Every structure is written in structure tokens, then in C-alpha cells.
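Pipeline run #58 for the internal structure catalog. This entry was flagged by the ingest filter as a single-chain record with no existing model, so it goes straight to prediction. Upstream metadata was stripped on purpose; only the residue string is passed forward. Reviewer on rotation: M.T. Logging verbosity set to normal.
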Amino acid sequence: MGLSSGIILILLGGLCLPALVAKKSPNAKDILDKVVPYQGWLGLVAFIWGVYGIFSALTSLSWLGSWPLWWTTRLIGNLMNFAGGAILGFGMIQKYLLAKAPASAQEKGKELYEKLVGMQSNIGIGCIITGLWVLLYELVLRSILKL
């Protein structure tokens, strides 16, 4: 996780909550309208990054004893990347990753997408909170904890 991860999580969260963000700030709607064409690619990249990060966190489970805050932050951040990326990039995921998969895998992908869309607002808020935490962790806590 790093500063870029925090920024991407906040952006993912904002894109998962377009109506809420547009209500809060009229300028945000203009910015979101500019980003929407790239939303699928951002979602696909965040999804792949999340899958890799989850796998990486689980393979470094031994670090949980030495660096529990860092490891937990890393795992939660990557789970949010996975979920937000799956929502925003489902069209791209379906086009590039599921197109050649067996029909059963395509069906499971659609089921996962439908479950995630039902939680889109919660995932968006979770992405924003996690992104802010990652930024706080990277900018403040790492220097205090000497990590």
C-alpha cells in the first residue's frame, strides 16, 4: 500500500457513489463526468490489483505477528480494490477475463457482480474510508512508528 493506493481507493469510492458525491459538490459532478469514460479501465486495474494484493497478503500471513496494523491495512485496502474494481470494471472484466472462461465461471461472475451492486453504496463508502486511512497511515503513522 502507498499514497497512490489511498488516492485510487478514494477515487474508486467516489465513482461508486456518483449520486451522493454530486449532491455534496456541484463541481464533483463535472469531474466525475470526465472520469466516467475511464471508469471501466480503472475498475479493471483496481480489480486485478486487488486480486494480486489479497493473494500477496495471504501469502505473507506470517507478517501478521510482526506488523499487524500494516498487514490488516494492506488486506482491507486490497479487498476494497477488489470489490470496487469489480463493480466499476465488470464490463471490462467480462470482456477480457470472462469471455474465454467456461459458462459456469461466467455465471458465477455475474452472480458476484449482482451481489456487489447491491452493496455498491457501502463499498463506495468503505473505499473512501479505507483510502483516507491508507493516506493517514502512509503520511503520519509510518513516520511515528518508524516503519
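catalog note: The chain has one domain: 3-145.
catalog note: The CA atoms of residues 29 and 37 lie 14 Å apart.
status: ready for reviewer M.T.
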